[in-house]
Amino acid sequence: MTRPLHPLELLAPAKNADFGIETIKHGADAVYIGGPAFGARYGAGNEVADIARLCEFAHRYRANVFVAVNTILHDAELEPGRRLAWDLYEAGADALIIQDMGLLEMDLPPIQLHASTQTDIRNPAKAKFLEDAGFSQLVLAREMSIEEIRKVAAATTLSLEYFVHGALCVAYSGQCYISHAHTGRSANRGECSQACRLPYTLVDDKGKVITENQHLLSMKDNNQSDNLLALIEAGVNSFKIEGRLKDLAYVKNITAHYRTLLDGILADHPQYAPASSGRSTFTFTPQPDKTFNRGYTDYFAGGRQDDIGAFDSPAFVGELIGEVAEIGDGWIAVNTGQAFHNGDGVCFHDAHGEVQGMRINRVECNRLYPAEMPAELAEGVTLFRNRDQEFERALEKNSADRRIALRARFAEHEDAFTLTLTDEDGVAVAVDLKKSEKIGRELAQNPEAALARLAENLAKLGNTMFRCIEVELPLEQPWFLPVSAINALRREATERLIAARTASHPRPERARPAANPVPFPQDELTYLGNVFNAKARAFYERHGVRLIEEAYEAGNEKGMVSLMITRHCLRYSFNLCPKEVKYLKPDPMTLVNGSEKLILKFDCQACEMHVIGRMKKGVRLNLGTIRPA
Asked: Do 19 and 128 fall into the same domain?
């Protein structure tokens, strides 16, 4: 199957509309954001009017806005979900990111549909099915290798979206039920309690402690900076940054970082094109190590590897800066060549492995004066910086400018002059300046200087979204033209061009499903299918599924089942993998956190780990936690 060449899309997160606008300024080709309900990041919701404001700004740059409506819905939420879809479409949203197939059985607006990562797309058969079902873009599982992506790309012509940066869920998305089983807060409903970030003790089947009090299900953060070209060549064309709950400094820094990398690829490979318009410039140098991360990994992009876990701490430790050389009365001297600033934050690991932090009030060369001296700080301790005050302050200001290239042509006609502005996408507007007693009747005394001044004034685009790369002046005579008249003409033309760009935004079209329902890759669905409403059941039945179990969130006791399925394997992490050490067997192990015990079973054929447990007594899903539209 021949894949058409797709533009390369940098997809950035937005906690709110203002964050989304900043991602566009910093080079995003598309933004994803949560609406007022049904988004899989509780606490990152936005009113429809705010999304409309973001759409209006994004569309000026031919950038798209995708809205996450990616929780599973119970029956009472289907109609509010349908109404919300229409509201978002009318607000200008370009696509909906969804998980619940029940929505496909409803009267949705003609808006593009993207399959959320919660739909668990990690093989060609699932990708091809979703294409036939009417999706336009697929959010691939984070665990997929580049070679696995290549196989999926060969099976579908759809746009493939892949997470390139940010927090990693240790479980296959959509296949984690620990939060719901223990607290009633469902990850598939946007309320994950993050049990994966807790400390655990690992015990083997004979009761031997392998390690204790480590964050064994906590992954380092994803960073695919070195793999972008390989991902492109494998078939990925949408590069997604995680972080709808992250702060503005993170969003600016990481978006600018990937914009810079992708622009470099575009410059070297002219067969690729950007997915939106304009060029971003920055007042800072992007540095991913400066903003929140748990250490970095490219996860399974190149296959299974060591050291993907953030076992020591799920906190942001920061960049290594040196060792404590000396401790004095209220100060510490650091053995480092790095510069510090008042207000920096530094931290270290104490004797228990916990992260201890301190704020630096004053800096004198390599001598730091903390606001409070931690009791466990000692000479020789390794220090990290998790807040660079100078870098943070740079990001608090206006830190990016994005401009659309245009050409200006100022031509003379019988009774008027016409200024035509044509931008890099071919959008053009023309505005006339009528000739009068004061305009176009008097020749300039210095023709060469007058033409140079006219060209300069026409190119002065100030704080607009445009930059002028060429001015044409096909004039019959070098007329004297008042600067005020030219400035007013230019302002009117740029305002009209902005309006024309917004009005002509090429809204993505909804894909049509196959004429006849194609069979789902499986004819049976367990609770792992996340079928939570009658419409979703009807969808799968229509696609040939015979037996459909209700979603885990339905609350019926299922006994000891897989509460998490993950490619991360603790046997591999501790050199106990039967594939690596032939005499070992994949015997179960246990994770212990206080009174909580989770059984680990190992599927070596699939190279997966299953975390087994049961629902706590009295746990019930709170169906009122997500506000309907």
From this structure: yes
Query: How many domains does one find in the chain?
Result: 3
Cα(376)–Cα(569) distance, rounded to whole angstroms? 34
- Which residue spans within 492-588 are E strands per DSSP? 524-525, 547-548, 561-566
In order of 142, 249, 470, 567, the CA distances from 193 in angstroms are 20, 25, 55, 20
pLDDT at site 624: 57
Residues 409 and 386 occupy one common structural domain: no
What the block records as the tokens of 606 is 């699939």
Start-to-end CA distance of the chain, whole Å, equals 41
CA-to-CA separations, 361 to 9, 174, 219, 370, 475, in angstroms, rounded: 42, 45, 33, 6, 64
User: Are residues 149 and 236 both part of a single domain?
Assistant: yes
The Cα 333–Cα 383 span in angstroms is 11
∠ Cα 453 457 459 (to 5°): 120
Task: Let me know if residue 163 belongs to a domain.
Answer: yes
Classify residue 437: in a domain, yes or no: yes
Nearest residue to 257 (alpha-carbon basis) of 300, 218, 296, 220: 296
State pLDDT tens for residues 302-323: 999 999 999 998 999 999 999 9
User: Do residues 71 and 15 both lie within one domain?
Assistant: yes
Phi and psi at 49, nearest 5°, equal -60, -35
pLDDT digits (tens, 9 = 90+) for 445-490: 898 999 999 999 999 999 999 999 999 999 988 888 999 999 999 9
pTM for the structure as a whole = 0.95
**Could you list the residue range(s) of the whole structural domain that residue 376 is in?**
315-396
Residue among 367, 347, 370, 374 nearest 359 (CA): 370
In a domain, 75, yes or no: yes
Is the same domain home to 238 and 161?
yes
- Last residue of one domain, picked from the residues 503, 519, 546: 503
CA dist 296 → 291, 388, 601 (Å): 12, 19, 27
